[in-house]
Amino acid sequence: QDGDIINIDVTVYLNGYHGDTSATFFVGEVDEDAKNLVKITKECLEKAIAICGPGVEYSKIGRTIHDHADKHGYGVVQHFVGHGVGKLFHSDPVILHYRNNGRGRMALDQTFTIEPMLTVGSINPILWDDKWTVVTEDGGLSAQFEHTILITRDGAQILTQ
């Protein structure tokens, strides 16, 4: 409906490899609260990608996202995670988007997704009967952005631009 925001998640399988990306879009005219949530969620993804590189701890992704979300008063959904992607669609590493003490470090030539989901209210998701659509427990606004990245010598390359 006019004023909603909606996330569309797209996966591709080409020449034996998977790609995974998503973005949040405006439906008609949205209010400033929705615009700001979408803006900050996209910034969280960008900031998380910017800190990636060989040897960086995965937990730094969650800390970066959570710190930026907190600064703007948004919740970070913990139920959904980023993941390794390549010949297998969902594989290690598991990428947490919230502060955590997880172990592990990024490796050169590794591919995975980062896909933070922020909310205005509840961070608890409700899965619809279609087994795909997710809304927040309180019906509040949520936004998500995702990219598949490749760890390079100089940091990270976005593969799903």
Give the helices and strands, then pairings.
Elements lengths: L4 E10 L2 E10 L5 H19 L8 H13 L3 E2 L5 E3 L6 E5 L15 E4 L2 E3 L5 E3 L6 E3 L5 E3 L2 E6 L2 E4 L3
Antiparallel strand pairs: 1-2, 3-7, 4-5, 6-11, 7-10, 8-9, 11-12
Gist?
Helices cover 20% and strands 35% of the residues.
Helix count, per DSSP? 2
Strand fraction: 25-35%
Query: Mind telling me the CATH class?
Result: Alpha Beta
CATH superfamily: Creatinase/methionine aminopeptidase superfamily
Low-confidence stretches: none
Approximate shape:
globular
Summarize the structure in words.
It contains two helices and twelve strands. The mean pLDDT is 96. The chain is of the alpha+beta class. Helices cover 20% and strands 35% of the residues. It has helices spanning 32-50, 59-71, and strands at 5-14, 17-26, 75-76, 82-84, 91-95, 111-114, 117-119, 125-127, 134-136, 142-144, 147-152, 155-158. The longest helix has 19 residues, at 32-50. Helix 1 (32-50) runs antiparallel to helix 2. It is globular, with a radius of gyration of 15 Å. The chain has one domain (4-158): Creatinase/methionine aminopeptidase superfamily (Creatine Amidinohydrolase), CATH 3.90.230.10.
Task: Give structural attributes.
single chain; 161 residues; alpha+beta; Creatine Amidinohydrolase; 2 helices; 12 strands
